[in-house]
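Researcher: We plan to redesign the surface later, but first we want a full-length starting point. Tokens attached.
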């Protein structure tokens, strides 16, 4: 029962990245999202992925794969919708 709950949560938790992606897309800007935060979180997720892949814990493996994919989407949208303010000369 505990493993089943963990497995559901391991898929559900990364799904909360989707509203952030949709918000960025709807506004057409990611200016309020820290680039340092987005790149830092993504880098840590990607660096943890090899460890997850060799782990015997299925919940950790599933979470890491789903989170890697969905947070990569967040990073892509943050970078794609990054708008620099116009320069005043």
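Model: Full-length starting sequence:
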């Amino acid at each position: 029962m505990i493993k089943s709950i963990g497995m559901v949560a391991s898929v559900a938790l990364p799904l909360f990245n989707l509203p952030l992606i949709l918000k960025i897309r709807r506004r057409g800007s990611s200016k309020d999202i820290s680039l340092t935060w987005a790149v830092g979180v993504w880098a840590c997720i990607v660096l943890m992925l090899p460890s997850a892949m060799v782990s015997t814990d299925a919940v950790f493996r599933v979470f890491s794969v789903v989170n890697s994919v969905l947070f990569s989407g967040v990073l892509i949208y943050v970078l794609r919708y990054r708008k620099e303010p116009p320069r005043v000369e």
